[in-house]
UniProtKB/TrEMBL annotation:
Gene source species: Corallococcus carmarthensis
Superkingdom assignment: Bacteria
GO biological process, one term: proteolysis
Keyword list, A-Z: Hydrolase, Signal
Pfam families membership: Peptidase_S9
Coiled-coil parts of chain: none
Stretches with biased composition (Polar residues): 651-661
Signal peptide positions (record): 1-19
PANTHER family attached to this UniProt entry: DIPEPTIDYL PEPTIDASE FAMILY MEMBER 6, SERINE PEPTIDASE S9 FAMILY MEMBER
GO MF, any single term: serine-type endopeptidase activity
Region (Disordered): 638-661
Ranges for domain Peptidase S9 prolyl oligopeptidase catalytic: 419-634
Protein name (database record): S9 family peptidase
Length: 661
């Protein structure tokens, strides 16, 4: 894929002159399929698997033998919707992967047998949602899966035979479990549950037939977000358990707990970061290293002396933050990913005996050597004194001074922006925009005080933080205050709608992808598998059944404030989204049209919460690019002459109302 040197490239309005104008990066390189991605070693160390597109552009799992002849072959046969995640079974001959239907998130677990070529649905029940839980070398032809077969709001565990396909109920969900954990013998002994008031409960049992008992309870306001707390795993002898725990600390930390006595030892902690990653030995069942996000980067605390020299050697391999993504059972060979802001993701094989790394591949080699923009970290104080962190990405070659800017708001909202290769930030910077990303209050990974500062602050203080970031960047001379767009998906989409409705003087236009418009309908329409977390949403967002909350929820729902919107709007939605349902976008667009506002609405009938079909992802970004160029000015790679990306399912509705740029 060549870079576009002015051919077919438009520039709308007047952009600041760039000292050395970089070529336009084709959207295909940023939002199309990777060439290869996600490599993993088989447990026996003899084979390598990865995902890559087939001749029809559908992502499949591919495998080759590491020694001997090149026998590369695709082992999955998905007809339309590509494989996004997979893992090896412990028998080293079976690959396991989830797949849903057009983004509905009713995933089934499939197996691909390398010896027979047979691909089989291991969970062939209509309307269920299954997830792969765990496998073990002690039972290499069995896997544990979770499934809501018995009760749609539950998550029971089933034991599945890879030989016969037989499914046996193993552990029944009492109705409040979010995640399960098995020990080294594939016995389910840990459960993370949530009470109706949002309290998180960690339960254990000493044996399969022993009763469950509470190990730890953490009230919602004393907790971090679930992905930063919970079970890491049991020790090999099953006598101890390793946890990510916020108990007694503002941030989560890694602790070892003796099950018989309750004695606890802190293994790793960081005052400014929750636990971001843990290296847990799959055979020895010990914590080897823990990663925290410090000064915007992933920093490892090594606990196991046996890997200290390995981490030191890896730190010299390449620029960027690294993580171990796969290793063989003998622990002789690793696959390591290196991430940085100005290069695509690169994977290396690492030989522990020689401590040498060899480049395996880049997931998008056509971007190697392309001028990409640096993500520069920043800090600022919010209007009420909170420290906010974020990243500013300016176009390569841009002169000093204010630029048209896109405020790119992360989803969740209980996630965070990090230093990494961000395709959207690179795309926007390449088109001539400064890109502003801020970890507003409620962002996760920064400790429970910062997380809880966002409780019931949707459309209020969380919105103020975004405004404060824009004001800071304007004061710093980075941003043209007359040309700022707000853009995001999921919660970020809500923030875009809220920004246009509640801060109409700040933004020139807004881009919302599958964002919430009405907090009442959103909170009442949770999918069955989300019922267990309704209590935490009631605490963190609002309780739709509490009369005292009605006024606030209405005042912070953008759909009820369309009369205040004065800027052009772009709304995109997947028809099968189970999280933010199509009704959220439909009612917002209808209200905008009724109010005579300028709105473009794009519906993708074969998508859910995210645009995963590459044709749809490319189509969405092409349309957003044209919208931003029209309202902010910027370089533009036009849509194909047909008016859509070939193969896209886009259904477009356009209303030109009173709102003008």
């Amino acid at each position: 894929m060549r870079l576009l040197m002015g051919v077919g490239v438009l520039m709308l309005w007047a952009m600041p002159a760039l000292a050395d104008v970089p070529p336009v990066i084709p959207r295909e390189l940023l939002f199309g399929n990777p060439v290869r991605d996600d490599p993993t070693l088989s447990p026996d160390g003899e084979k390598l698997a990865w995902v890559a597109p087939d001749a029809k552009g559908v992502m499949q799992v591919w495998v080759r033998t590491l020694q001997g002849k090149d026998d590369t072959r695709a082992v999955t046969k998905e007809p339309e919707r590509g494989v996004r995640y997979y893992e090896w079974a412990q028998d080293s001959r079976t690959l396991l992967y989830p797949q849903d239907s057009d983004g509905d998130e009713n995933t089934h677990v499939y197996s691909a047998d390398l010896s027979t070529g047979v691909v089989r649905d291991l969970t062939p029940f209509q309307g269920i949602r299954a997830r792969l839980l765990e496998s073990s070398p002690t039972a290499p032809r069995e896997v544990l899966v979770t499934m809501n077969l018995r009760e749609r709001t539950g998550s029971d565990i089933y034991r599945v035979s890879l030989d016969t396909g037989a499914i046996t109920l193993d552990t029944q969900d009492p109705g409040d479990v979010m995640t399960w954990t098995a020990d080294a013998k594939l016995n389910v002994r840990g459960a993370l549950a949530q009470k109706p008031d949002g309290t998180t409960v960690l339960r254990v049992r000493d044996a399969v037939r022993a009763p469950w008992r509470t190990l730890l309870e953490v009230p919602l306001r004393e907790n971090v977000f679930p992905q930063y707390m919970g079970f890491i795993g049991f020790s090999r002898d099953g006598a101890r358990v390793y946890l990510k725990s916020p108990h007694g600390s503002n941030t989560s930390r890694v602790v070892e707990k003796v099950l018989r006595t309750g004695a606890e030892k802190v293994l790793a902690e960081d005052a400014g970061s929750d636990v971001m990653d843990v290296l847990f030995h799959p055979e020895r069942k010990v914590v080897q290293a823990v990663a925290f996000t410090t000064d915007g980067h992933l920093r490892w605390t090594v606990l196991d002396p046996g890997v200290r020299e390995d981490f030191e050697a890896l730190g010299r391999v390449a620029r960027g933050d690294f993580s171990l993504v796969s290793r063989d059972r003998a622990d002789r060979r690793w696959v390591v990913a290196f991430e940085q802001d100005t290069a695509p993701l690169r994977y290396y094989t690492y030989d522990r005996s020689t401590r040498r790394a060899e480049l395996l591949f880049s997931n998008q080699p056509s971007l190697d050597g392309v001028p990409l923009a640096e993500m520069k970290p920043f800090q600022l104080k919010s209007r009420d004194g909170l420290t906010l962190t974020g990243y500013l990405t300016r176009p390569v070659g841009a002169p000093q001074g204010p630029l048209p800017t896109v405020l790119l708001v992360h989803g969740g909202p209980w996630t965070r922006d990090t230093w990494r290769f961000n395709p959207e930030a690179q795309w926007l910077a390449n088109r001539g925009y400064a890109v502003l990303q801020v970890n507003f209050r409620a962002s996760a990974g920064l400790g429970k005080a910062f997380l809880n500062a966002g409780n019931r602050q949707w459309g209020r203080a969380m919105n103020d933080d975004l405004e404060d970031a824009v004001a800071w960047a304007v004061k710093e001379g980075q941003v043209d205050p007359a040309r700022v767009a707000i853009m995001g998906s999921s919660y970020g989409g809500y923030a875009a709608l809220a920004g246009a409705a509640f801060s109409p003087a700040v933004y020139r236009c807004a881009v919302d992808a599958f964002g919430i418009s009405n907090l009442f309908t959103f909170l009442k329409s949770f999918p069955p598998q989300w019922q267990v977390i309704r209590g935490s949403y009631a605490q963190r967002v609002g309780d739709v059944d509490d009369p005292s909350e009605q006024e606030r929820l209405r005042a912070t729902s953008p759909v009820f404030a369309v009369d205040r919107i004065r800027v052009p709007m772009f709304v995109a939605q997947g028809a099968n989204d189970p999280r933010v349902k199509q009704a959220e976008s439909e009612q917002m667009v209808s209200a905008l049209e009724k109010a005579g506002r300028d709105v473009t609405y794009v519906l993708y009938p074969d998508e859910g919460h995210g645009f995963y079909q590459p044709e749809n992802n490319l189509d969405y970004h092409a349309r957003v690019e044209a919208f931003l160029a029209q309202n902010l000015g910027g370089r533009l790679e036009p849509l194909p002459k047909e008016g859509r990306v070939p193969g896209s399912s886009a259904v477009v509705r356009q209303s030109s109302g009173a709102a003008k740029p």
